[in-house]
Design a protein that fits this description.
It is a single chain. With 700 residues, the chain is of the alpha/beta class. The chain has a five-stranded mixed beta sheet with strand order 2-1-5-3-4, with helices on both faces. Strand 10 (315-319), helix 14 (323-334) and strand 11 form a beta-alpha-beta unit. Helix 10 runs antiparallel to helix 13 (286-295). It starts with a strand and ends in a 22-residue tail after the last helix. The relative contact order is 0.11. Bound molecules: FE2/S2 (inorganic) cluster. FE2/S2 (inorganic) cluster (FES) binds next to loops. FE2/S2 (inorganic) cluster binds next to loops.
């Protein structure tokens, strides 16, 4: 150790440590610009100059090493003058007008100018005349704003070991760029965006700015994690899978959701819609990676581990054993409460067992994950329909309604009550239970979401000979997953987007003969969120069929008898803490917000568990850490052709082998490809390891 004195303050610091860091860490501000705590020093900006007793002139404190007995002065007239001069030299080629810079208000250089008190107009200024480069994914390069601090070059070369950025020279200027000014993809950039993170000006910046959005900077940096309703730590589990540690990866998923395998098969992947990889080539196969982790998980990090608080003596009844109810019950049990789920159907799982067809989600996967919840101590009763939840308060301290939306909706149109007109949920449930559905041979499904495709593909597997699916939305904005649409078409299902449903036609005896349609020219929602449909004149047409299935939404199966305030579509009205109109009764999942996704229901169940735990006197903290610590290596290195890497394929049976049975036909990513797929991740979260700037305003 060494004793040094800075501005009269004596400090004990490690021998040879960079004096600038010694000062900053001890709360003494020395201005700096090219210095960054995560990067090697290059001593180029000269903002950090100091005087050392017994030495001539000034020296840069970022390159000065602490020696025992050193006496340092950070402020003097000479230092101030020289700093001002250095700053003015930097600014001579920097645009004068900061207010037009997208980094305005968030620029380190701007803050430093205020501290040093430099004037921008003293030296003759020149315009660099670079064209702003917006041709690369994710990043914008505006070399007019560069002050050549070199942080980006060091981040790319020394921190990341990628070596894409370098100093280039044209006739007039030195600037930062790539070899021969190639596109970032063509020089194997890893798109980690560390360069944008360390840039102190608006030179290299993200295309998506943190300003003026509802998101925090970290949420924008790792959009997959932000977009996942349960905020599963996606980059962390992808990294574990890449390292071959599926146990740890599955544990990461289990920190947020009790259904990793189910989600690995059917999650709607909100995360993928925002994956930054899709800006570069194709989005990551996040769902399939989760599935791979779940299928290779031995439970090493979570079986019999994780949180289980002592019994509280409080009793909770959860009405409905779907994803929201099961999730809430699981976390409430872990908080120490005595939890019972009452489910109306013969098995637990809700839509996971009776809505989503088994070729997409095998029932044994759901049963296995439900068993984990049961093993945690949650009591489960099936075949019990609760009509009056209020009465449950006589026996339980709290009640949670998670009854889902199990009542299909018939649109108000002619013929909608003919006997061969079926509704989505009933049809899928009957098919799932092996019961007679009443379906004929020629089927028209009305609706364009995933549930509509589940109906159409189930009809195919039950033996329908001709199936048509029609919806209001145009093909490119249909709400079903693209994969669902493609696979259905491969199976011979005719998809008719942009159609109005005029009427269901029938015989005089009252049997379905078909559906009349018109083409939709335009379909949108007005400012009051009311649908506006413009039809194409003279486009009336008819499709013959003997069965119509409505797949145009579903409602909660609940009557006024339940004694709870209801809203649109039979939903249960709740406040922001999931309280219903009756004290002690909470609600979560589809029955409060309409039909969404399993992951949304899980998150809603988690939120309800938090609220109910607080209501029962707990702290509401249901978080837990299951996975071991992870070292995320910042030195990601070079991968040849990284930017162009496409998503690896999955093993899927051809249509002919899958369309007549309910067996699983998608086998996910195979062992030999999983490394390639996980290796495509941009590892956006690495950027959050980089330390933020330490501005003078943060020092007293
Ligand atoms: Fe030390 Fe730039 S020379 S911070």
């Amino acid at each position: 150790m060494a004793i040094i004195v800075i501005d009269g303050i004596s400090l004990e610091v490690p021998d040879n440590k960079n004096v600038l860091e010694c000062a900053l860490e001890n709360g003494i501000y020395i201005p700096h610009l090219c210095h960054h705590p995560d990067l090697p020093e290059n001593g180029s900006c000269r903002m950090c100059i100091v005087e050392v007793e017994g030495q001539e002139g000034v020296t840069t404190s970022c390159t000065l090493r602490a020696k025992d007995g050193m006496v340092i002065t950070t402020k003097s007239d000479r230092i101030n003058k020289l700093r001002k001069l250095s700053m003015e030299l930097l600014l001579a080629s920097h645009p004068e007008d900061c207010s037009t810079c997208p980094k305005y208000g968030d620029c380190e250089l701007q803050t430093l100018i205020q501290y040093i008190g430099a004037s921008t107009g003293r030296l003759h200024s020149r315009v660099k005349g670079f064209k702003e480069n917006t041709e690369n994914p994710l990043l914008i390069h505006d070399m007019n704003r560069c002050v050549l601090c070199g942080r980006c070059v060091r981040a790319c070369n020394d921190l990341r070991k990628v070596g894409v950025l370098q100093y280039n020279q044209n006739d007039m200027e030195t600037y930062v760029g790539t070899l021969h000014d190639k596109l970032l993809k063509d020089v194997n950039c890893r798109f980690c965006t560390a360069c944008a993170e360390v840039c102190p000006t608006g030179t290299i910046r993200d295309k998506l700015q943190a300003m003026n959005t509802e998101y925090t900077k970290e949420e924008l940096i790792v959009p997959c994690r932000t977009e996942c309703p349960a905020h599963t730590d996606i980059p962390r589990y992808i990294r574990f899978v890449k390292e071959g540690d599926c146990d740890a990866a599955a544990a990461v998923v289990r920190e947020k959701v009790p259904f990793p395998h189910t989600l690995g098969l059917i999650c709607t992947q909100a995360c993928r819609t925002k994956c930054k990889r899709s800006e570069v080539s194709e989005g990551m196969s996040i769902r399939e990676i989760k599935r791979y982790a779940a299928e290779h998980d031995t439970g090493k990090y979570w079986k019999g581990k994780g949180k289980q608080l002592p019994d509280t003596g409080k009793k909770v009844c959860v009405v409905g054993g779907g994803p929201a109810g099961l999730t809430a019950a699981y976390y409430l049990r872990k908080q120490g409460h005595d939890v019972t789920i009452k489910e109306a159907l013969p098995a637990m799982g809700g839509m996971m067992s009776y809505g989503i067809p088994s070729y997409r989600l095998p029932r044994e996967v759901v049963a296995k994950e439900v068993k984990v919840i049961e093993d945690q101590g949650v009591k489960m009763e099936t075949g019990v329909k609760v009509e009056k939840p209020v009465e449950l308060l006589n026996e339980y301290d709290a009640v949670l309604m998670t009854i889902g939306n199990h009542m299909g909706v018939r649109l108000p149109m002619k013929g909608n009550h003919l006997p061969e007109v079926l509704v989505n949920i009933t049809f899928l449930r009957q098919a799932s239970l092996g019961q007679e559905t009443g379906m004929g041979k020629r089927v028209v499904v009305l609706g364009g979401g995933n549930v509509a495709f589940d109906c159409a593909r189930t009809a195919k597997r039950l033996g329908a000979e001709e199936i048509h699916l029609a919806c209001l939305e145009a093909r490119d904005v249909m709400t079903a997953d693209e994969e669902e649409i493609t696979q259905a078409e491969e199976e011979g299902i005719f998809v008719h987007p942009a159609q109005t449903f005029e009427r269901i036609t029938g015989t005089e005896e009252g049997h379905v003969t078909g559906v009349d349609f018109m083409n939709v020219r335009k379909f949108y929602f007005d400012e009051n969120r009311r649908p506006v449909i413009e039809k194409e004149e003279g486009s009336e047409h008819h499709i013959d069929c003997d069965t119509v299935i409505f797949a145009t939404g579903q409602w909660a199966d609940l009557t006024e008898e339940a004694g709870l305030e209801q809203g649109r579509g039979n939903s249960i009205v709740v406040d922001e803490n999931k309280n219903t109109s009756v004290k002690g009764i909470f609600a979560a999942g589809d029955c409060i917000y309409g039909t969404k996704s399993v992951i949304m229901a899980i998150e809603s169940g988690r939120e309800a568990a938090t609220e109910i735990d607080k209501f029962l006197g707990g702290d509401g903290d249901i978080s837990e850490v299951l996975a071991p610590p992870q070292f995320a290596d910042p030195a990601i290195g070079v991968i040849e052709g990284f930017g162009d890497l496409k998503a690896v394929g999955k093993k899927i049976l051809p249509a002919k082998e899958r369309e007549d049975n309910f067996n699983q036909f998608d086998f996910g990513i195979c062992d030999s490809d999983i490394c390639a797929e996980t290796g495509r991740c941009l590892q956006c979260d690495l950027r959050t390891q980089i330390h933020g700037a330490r501005l003078w305003t943060q020092y007293s």
